[in-house]
Amino acid sequence: MRKIMFTFLLTLSMIMLINIVPTKAFDNETELDLLIRRIDHINEIYNSNYYILSEEEFINSEITDTFKSYDDYVKHLLNYDLNELENELIVNITVDSETINVNIETYFRSTSGSRTLSFYNGNNKMILKYKYSGSKFDTSYKPGVTVTKVNTKNFFEMSSHTGSFKNSNKTYSIIAKGRVITPSGVVSNKSFTVNFNL
Fold it and tell me: What phi, psi does 66 have (nearest 5°)?
C-alpha cells in the first residue's frame, strides 16, 4: 500500500511539474505576441518598419554591448509597460531624417583634411576625410565617410551612403542610410543628409 501511495504521489508531482513549465513558457510567448501585435499596430498607424531583432540580428548587432544575451534582450522588452513602450516607439518612429549643414575651414598650406560632427541627437559621429583646392573640393578624390556610435543604447547604424559634389564643388553632400537601434527595437529605413561646405 505504501508503494502504491508513493508511486501515486510521485506521478502526481511529475504531472504537476510538467504542467507548470510549459505554462510559464507559454506566458512569455503570449507576452511577446502582445508586444509584437502592439508594434505591428503602431507600424500600421505610422507607416513605419519598427521591429524586434531576431536572435541572429541581435548577435550581429552592436546592441550586444548593452545586453549579455538574446534572452536578456527579450526579457528587457517584456519588462516594458505596453503603454510606455508604445510612447517610446512613437518617439523613435517619428524622428525625421535630418539635414545637417557643416562649414569647413580651409588652411592655405594644406590640401587635405577631415571634419567630425555629431548627429542624431549626439548619439553618433560622422567623419569626412577629403581633399580640396582653394575653396573647392578636389573632385579627383572621393571623400571617405565613417559613422561611429557615441551612445551604446540608442544609435544609428549606417548600412550605406552616397556622396555627391554640389554647388560648384563647394559642397559635398552625404546621404547616410541605415537603421536606428534602440533597446526597445529597431527602426529601419532611416536616412540622414549631411552637407559639408567649404
Answer: -90, -35
- Pairing of the two strands 171-182 and 124-133: unpaired
For the chain, which residues make up each domain, given as ranges? 2-93, 99-197
pLDDT in tens, the chain (198 residues): 555 554 544 454 445 444 443 334 435 567 778 888 888 888 888 787 888 888 888 888 878 778 888 888 888 888 877 778 778 777 777 666 677 888 787 766 678 889 999 988 889 999 999 999 888 999 999 999 999 999 888 899 999 999 999 999 999 999 999 999 888 888 888 899 999 998
Closest to 147 measured CA to CA, from 104, 117, 112: 117
3-state secondary structure of 141: coil
Q: Three cell numbers at 17?
A: 511539474
Which residues fall within 8 angstroms of residue 125, CB to CB, at 6 or more apart? Answer: 116, 117, 118, 119, 147, 148, 150
Closest to 61 measured CA to CA, from 49, 73, 50: 73
Alpha carbon of residue 130 to chain centroid: 28
The Cα–Cα gap between 147 and 156 comes to 8
d(CA 181, CA 154): 6
**Under a CB-based contact definition with an 8 Å cutoff, are residues 102 and 115 in contact?**
yes
Beta-carbon contacts of residue 151 (< 8 Å; ≥ 6 apart): 122, 123, 124
Q: Quote the CA–CA distance of 38 and 128 in Å, as a whole number.
A: 39
